[in-house]
Design brief:
The chain is of the alpha+beta class and 362 residues long. The chain has 2 domains: 105 residues, Rieske Iron-sulfur Protein (3-layer Sandwich), CATH 2.102.10.10; 191 residues, Alpha-Beta Complex (Naphthalene 1,2-dioxygenase Alpha Subunit, Chain A, domain 1), CATH 3.90.380.10. It has 8 helices and 17 strands. Strands 10, 11, 12, 13, 14, 15, 16 and 17 form an 8-stranded antiparallel beta sheet that branches. The longest helix has 18 residues.
Length: 362
């Protein structure tokens, strides 16, 4: 590592991350090892495995972590998330989603139960000290939130604390009734560092300058950011009579015209709640200057789609991409070192930079 990162905890004194963070390959590798391997990642919804296909192989953050993993569901409806790599010679155990009672490697026949315990291996009768615990498939921490699933390779914080904080405001929503709209799924490829995309997401400061349509439906003056340990929330208030949440009387925002709750979970997950449902945005580093952002729309009330702050998501995304790619070009300048934060508008970015520095320096 070429340098330590320091972000002053006092936002009125702090400088942003140095430009070298976005340009230096050593930092990009540190992000992979010290942040993403120690984070939680959203992997989809529990419907990925059912009675027809009780196994679901996937690659966690392909082209970055590129970790082969496997979701399974047993007869008792218990889910497990396992490595999809056979402990004999490293072959993939399951190639495609299917229904099965056992996990059997197609290379030499080593078999496991649906929770990863090795049960049989041909021609190993004379092998000493076999089987050992390391012959089982590694099982990873799996966290539920409504229908949504998160997995951690070696997570450095408790996700439940994050979810509990989120539930204080959106817990009244029936998440189990949210349904994925396949037609609205979309991947975007951005020629910029992944963290620049997050920087942009984490402040509403740019809305009046970049998003004319969004600015017309949000009350910029009341835009608010609330910080938590590994998560923050931006609250978008409606400007006029646009679609707003019907909040219960015991809700902390009862009586307010809330158009959107924008949740970000460190380091790369966004959950944007609108009256129609939630748009899940997953930011996936590919290269130091290339990022994939995947949008998944889970709809609860289709009558409210394409209205208010939750409308024109593709247009907003295109506007964000243009400005983020502009910043990517700008930080290549040898004359740009770092910037300062707006204490009133960039609390979320400051929070993100402090977490990045904390994890990378650890």
């Amino acid at each position: 590592m070429t340098e330590k990162l320091r972000i002053d905890p006092d936002i009125t004194k702090a400088e942003t991350l140095p430009a070298s963070f976005y340009r230096n390959p050593d930092f990009f590798e540190a992000v992979r090892e010290r942040i993403f391997y120690r984070s939680w990642q959203w992997i989809g919804h529990e419907g990925l495995v059912d009675s027809d296909h009780n196994t679901y192989p996937f690659i966690l953050l392909d082209k970055f972590l590129t970790e082969p993993m496997l979701l399974t569901r047993d007869k008792a409806e218990r889910l497990s998330c396992l490595t999809n790599v056979c402990t004999h010679r490293g072959n993939l155990v399951v190639e495609s989603a299917k229904a099965t009672k056992k996990l059997i490697c197609g290379y030499h026949g080593r078999s496991f139960n649906l929770h990863g315990k090795m049960e049989h291996m041909p021609e190993f009768e004379n092998v000493e000290n076999f089987p050992r615990p390391c012959d089982n498939l590694k099982k990873f921490p799996l966290q539920y939130w409504g229908p949504f699933l998160f997995v951690g390779l070696n997570p450095a914080f408790e996700l439940q604390e994050v979810l509990d904080s989120m539930n204080k405001r959106i817990g009244f929503l029936p998440l189990q009734e949210f349904k994925l709209d396949e037609k609205r799924k979309k991947d975007y490829f951005i020629n910029a560092n992944w963290a620049l995309y997050c920087d942009n997401y984490l402040e509403g400061f740019h809305i009046p300058f970049v998003h004319d349509d969004l600015n017309a439906v949000l009350d910029y003056g009341n835009y608010d950011t609330i910080l938590h340990d590994h998560m923050n929330l931006q609250i978008g208030y409606a400007e006029g009579t646009e679609e707003v949440f019907d909040l219960p009387e015991n809700h902390p925002d009862y009586g307010k015209k809330i158009a959107a709750y924008y949740y970000w979970i460190f380091p790369n997950m966004m959950f944007n709640f609108y009256p129609w449902g939630v748009s899940v945005n997953l930011v996936q580093p590919l290269e130091m200057n290339k990022t994939k952002v995947s949008f998944y729309s889970y709809v609860y009330d289709s009558s409210k789609l394409d209205k208010g702050a939750g409308s024109q998501l593709d247009k907003v995304e295109m506007e964000d991409e243009e400005v983020v790619e502009g910043v990517q070009k700008g930080i290549r300048s040898r004359f740009y070192k770092a910037g300062r934060f707006s204490p009133s508008r960039e609390k979320g970015v400051h929070h993100f930079h402090r977490l990045l520095a904390e994890f990378i320096n650890s």
